[in-house]
């Protein structure tokens, strides 16, 4: 057969004869049968389902999974399970698994993380503020603006959950304020810098600026205004012996003595009272914060209103500092007068005895 005829034969349409079925292909498999029984060689059926505690541990282990879907589903399960208040869990160990997700690239995972953290019991987080702030400050300075926004939201939760411990822990006050200067772009105010630098500010992002100012307002109020009254409530109203010898309710009660060799003046220093925190703020942060707040207030709008609230806290702090200074001066004058009176009496009595 000639090559041209063989080639044309490939393109010829097969004529089907009436009454005959279409021929089946060579690899055809008949699947029209129905099986009445399915036999499985190995099969294990358990009566008892996994306990809630074992499921909890399983989902905690999945939090480090490479799959975004698995991490998100585990956080959803944990959020529901933690709300039941029937699980046994270690707060430090659980936070070690949860907090790294603050810098997760997936926004849905971060949103689920925030909801899961809000389901945690506040009583068990009071002395873990330093661990929380470590991850929050890292998230606030992340190059991804969405991660920075999530970190600010978690900081707002931490202010409510940890309370005064958030500003009293090591680096809780000084380092967080420095981080705020970086986030809001105020760290270089009044300084002339040369060379390469990275701008981490939220410039142009009104929503995140408002969120940052709201959390900053709450943080400043907690550290310099509310903390003073709360500290006074915590002081025992008892005599010297009971206040000295009783067991303290908080861990590391003598950390102000710096027995462990921490830097007492650096970024990670302890601040045990509102007066000390006010002194740090007024001496090292006040000028930059006031200049930055003034610039945002000029923009008006929602950001301007948030800046006005922050400014009112700064003004209230200055008033508190002035009143505290007046009280200290008054107390010092009274003590000086009292000392002088005692010295005069001692001198007079000694002179009289000498003459006698």
Overview of this structure, please?
By secondary structure, the chain is an all-alpha fold. The protein has a domain of 163 residues. It has 14 helices and no strands. The longest helix has 55 residues. The protein is elongated and about 140 Å long.
Rg calculated over all Cα atoms: 35 Å
Main sheet specs: none
Weakly predicted, low-confidence segments = 194-200, 231-239
User: SSE order in H/E notation?
Assistant: HHHHHHHHHHHHHH
The total count of helices amounts to: 14
Instruction: Return the structural class.
Output: mainly alpha
Subunit structure: Component of the RIX1 complex.
Protein name: Pre-rRNA-processing protein
Biased composition (Basic residues): 14-23
GO biological process, one term: rRNA processing
What's the gist of this structure?
With 356 residues, the protein is mainly α.
Short key terms for the protein model shown above:
356 residues; mainly alpha; 14 helices; 0% strand; elongated
Helices and strands in order, then pairings?
Layout: H1 3-10, H2 52-62, H3 68-82, H4 91-98, H5 107-118, H6 129-140, H7 145-162, H8 165-168, H9 174-184, H10 206-234, H11 240-245, H12 274-284, H13 286-297, H14 301-355
